[in-house]
Write a structure and sequence with these properties.
The complex is a heterodimer of chains A (about 300) and B (about 325). Chain A is mainly α. Helix content of chain A is about 70%, strand content about 0%. Chain A folds into 2 domains: about 70 residues, no CATH class; about 220 residues, MetI-like (MetI-like fold, Orthogonal Bundle). Chain A starts with a helix and ends in a 5-residue tail after the last helix. Chain B starts with 5 loop residues before the first helix and ends with a helix. The chains are: A mainly alpha (about 300), B mainly alpha (about 325).
Chain lengths: ~300, ~325
């Protein structure tokens, strides 16, 4: 079936080489040249992770052979098992993985809840100082965390003496700032998604006797579910990959995966390359699966938020 | 353009329409109820953004006027002493120089390669989703772990690149290159990784810009007999200008804040030759000197806020131009 569909596609776009939209691509009109470039680009983009996967399947001896080998002679999943279960010089990658999952998930949920309310207000409601408040949100979406790092660290340290809550060195020390860190971007992306929904819908709902808030809850929210999940994934990726706060606000027991991997790589014996690459692959694979599934939506979401890396 | 400038539309709409229809104070009960709902929905966000966004930023400036103590405890007001120290600190100047050079070089590379990738991914051919996924991928891989992988690939004993050179008989196992040990090679590698990592962000923005250019414009160019490169230079790129400017400013802002990419790769070594402002802030935090690290952080903030203002002006201006 897929084959037939592809043929139909080609029938609709007879000039394979790009020419249908832009003139002059004829110099690329041979399929071979086109796909050769695609292959090179794909290889360059995916190379570090392909190489990580290969290394993660190697034995310790292979990862430190001189000169290095590219392909594992006897591929095995031992490194993955070891990464998840064993204690590597006092570091437990399994624990880091769990920390990352909890921190990223909880803060994404908090961010999304807050951002949804604000984005709806920006997209649909009229109120005073709207453009000024929105400009502040826009400015904060690009604001350097480096300039927020130290006072937040102070708050985390002082929370013990003032509030009696131990935050520093717990995963709470990350959940609180992460929930706010992703807010501006999430709001901007969600505004774009809310704006895609025709205004008539909630007007109709309000004529039917719903309040504005009820219309938001029952009519608009269900329609934004795809946009909601796209935004949530973008926010989640940001939290999952965050390093600066994670490095400064955690201790060994509350390390997230990136901090754990970097710390081990900078403090441990080189013989742990297999385990480190296994941990890296496990850090990346869930995201890659999500992205491959939702590539088109994520692209539109990222561009709506003017993209923050 | 629609997708790229979503916030802009909002700015325009809110400046043009809201409030203007009815002067404040003379709004009907419905409008007042709407405003109450709006602020009820916004309050949690505004409180959060103030407490963990604006307040820390202002406090950073305040800390930069303090000295002494450890981790911000037992400090005393010191006026501009930290700034005077900064001015005479060669390590600050070398870090600033690294940050600026890093931004100029990597952002240039990202703009050129990102735009090229986007032009290519915008072409229509079967299977182009593979290319789009490939563009998206470097964004998703954690910057810090990515740097660890690259550091291993360039490891002077066990690294892949040295062994490729050995197989090509460029070097022998006895004369392997210590990539991360040399200032020049480490710096160049940092540039390459940073360009590789953030190409995609430029490409995504440009791709959205390209898709908003109507086909008729290309048709017209073709009827006029323009070649591909003439069309690119005279039509496509000028139309992409607003998108390219936004991408450029956003990338500069992000590059000035770079931390994890270098921290996990060389951690500033050899010596302090690859240390940028972010790494310097971190090392002063580790020393417990919150005053001086806040001073450097204030410099980063001033640099980026200047570009943020520029960014906001570009956005609001392109909105009012329409």
């Amino acid at each position: 079936m897929a084959h037939i569909a592809e043929q139909a596609d080609q029938a609709r776009e007879p000039s394979i080489a790009v020419g249908s939209k832009q003139p002059g691509w004829r110099f690329l009109s041979s399929r071979a040249a086109l796909y050769l470039i695609v292959a090179v680009v794909v290889l360059v983009q995916f190379f570090p992770i392909i190489w990580s996967v290969l290394t993660s399947l190697m034995s310790p001896a292979e990862t430190t052979s001189i000169p290095a080998t590219l392909l594992p002679a006897h591929p095995s999943l031992t490194n993955y098992q070891q990464a998840l279960t064993s204690d590597i010089g006092g570091f437990k990658i399994g624990q880091f993985y769990l920390n990352s999952v909890i921190v990223s998930t909880v803060s994404t949920i908090v961010t999304m809840f807050l951002a949804m309310l604000a984005a709806y207000a920006f997209a649909r409601l009229n109120f005073r100082f709207k453009s000024q408040i929105l400009l502040i949100v826009l400015a904060l979406s690009l604001f350097p965390p480096l300039a927020q790092l130290i006072p937040i660290l102070r708050i985390l340290i002082l929370s013990k003496t003032i509030l009696g809550i131990q935050l520093f060195g717990t995963i709470g020390a990350l959940i609180v700032p992460y929930s706010v860190l992703g807010l501006p971007l999430a709001i901007l992306i969600l505004i774009a998604f809310f704006q895609e929904i025709p205004k008539d819908l909630e007007e109709a709902a309000m004529i039917d006797g719903m309040s504005r808030f009820q219309a938001f809850l029952r009519v608009i929210l269900p329609l934004t579910i795809p946009g909601f999940f796209t935004t949530a994934i973008i926010v989640f990726v940001g939290n999952w990959n965050e390093y600066l706060f994670a490095l400064n606000y955690t201790t060994t027991s509350s390390y997230t995966l990136p901090v754990g991997i970097v710390t081990i790589s900078q403090s441990e014996y080189v013989t742990n390359f297999g385990i480190l690459t296994a941990a890296t692959v496990m850090a990346v694979v869930p995201l890659v699966v999500l992205i491959l599934l939702l590539e088109r939506r994520i692209v539109s979401g990222l561009t709506a938020g003017a993209v923050k890396g | 353009m629609q997708a790229t400038f979503a916030p802009t539309d909002e700015v325009r709409e809110s400046t043009g329409m809201s409030g203007a229809a009815l002067p404040p104070g003379r709004r009907g009960p419905l409008a007042r109820r709407e405003e109450r709902l709006a602020f009820a929905m916004l309050t949690p966000v505004l409180l959060a953004l103030f407490a963990l966004g604006l307040y820390p930023a202002i406090t950073t400036v305040w800390y930069s006027l303090q000295s002494g103590g450890y981790q911000g405890i037992n400090t005393s007001y010191a006026g501009f002493a930290n700034y005077i120290r900064l001015f005479h600190d060669p390590l600050f100047w070398s870090s600033l120089r690294f940050s600026l050079l890093f931004s100029i070089i990597t952002v240039s590379g990202q703009m050129i390669l990102g735009t090229a990738l986007a032009l290519f991914a915008n072409a229509k051919f079967p299977g182009r989703w593979v290319l789009r996924a490939a563009i998206l991928f470097p964004w998703a891989i954690p910057t810090a772990t990515n740097s660890v992988i690259w550091a291993y690939m360039f490891n002077y004993q066990y690294g892949l690149f040295n062994s490729i050179l050995i197989h090509l008989h460029v070097i022998t196992p006895a004369t392997t290159i210590n990539w991360l040990g040399g200032t020049t090679s480490a710096t160049v590698l940092i540039y390459i990784i940073a360009i590789w990592k953030a190409n995609s962000l430029v490409a995504l923005l440009v791709l959205a810009g390209l898709q908003s250019i109507p086909d008729e414009i290309y048709e017209a160019a073709r009827v006029d007999g323009a070649t591909y490169f003439q069309t690119l230079w005279r039509v496509t790129l000028p139309l992409l200008r607003p998108t390219l400017i936004v991408a450029l400013i956003v990338r500069i802002i992000e590059s000035l804040q770079a931390f994890d990419i270098i921290s996990a790769f060389t951690n500033g070594s050899p010596g302090t030759s690859t240390q940028n402002l972010g790494l310097y802030i971190y090392s002063e935090i580790s020393n417990g000197d919150f005053g001086y690290s806040s001073t450097i952080a204030t410099v980063v903030m001033v640099l980026t806020v200047a570009f943020i203002f520029f960014y906001l002006r570009t956005l609001t201006r392109s909105a009012s131009a329409r």
